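Table S2 (text version). Query chain:
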Amino acid sequence: MKFKIIIMLVILGLLSVMPLVYMGKVDSQALIDFDFGWFGKQGTGSLSSVVTDEKVHVYKWRDQNGVMQFSNERPPLSVGAKQIVLNPNSNVIQAVKIAEKKKVAPVVKTESVSPYSVSGMKKVMDDAKGVEQVLQQRHEEQQQMMENL
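Corresponding structure-token output:
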């Protein structure tokens, strides 16, 4: 019976902490990353947990297998590591350059004529004839281009 109660309390504790982890109120990495000292960590944090307003110095090199390595501790001099300074005040993603807006000619408002009136039907027919002329001209230009090939 005591075992069931303990299990229920553990589950209840986990269920009460999970919403805080998902909302970002509790750092789950800190809950998992125990720093006991006798396991060899001795106070060194990982690069992923670095949150600071100061510049961070990181060393970058390739190991004997060709894998890229990163560390905040200086590797042996024989490795030939490159030091990188991470500035927290710089953008990680470059800004998108936006082209200047071209000036658009002002739109002249014309009187709208109902297409169902006599004058509206004449305007529709004139517009259709204009479109037909443009398409006919385009067709002739294409025919000339085909003949020149």
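Notes on Table S2: Confidence is low (pLDDT under 50) at residues 37-44. The longest strand covers residues 56-62.
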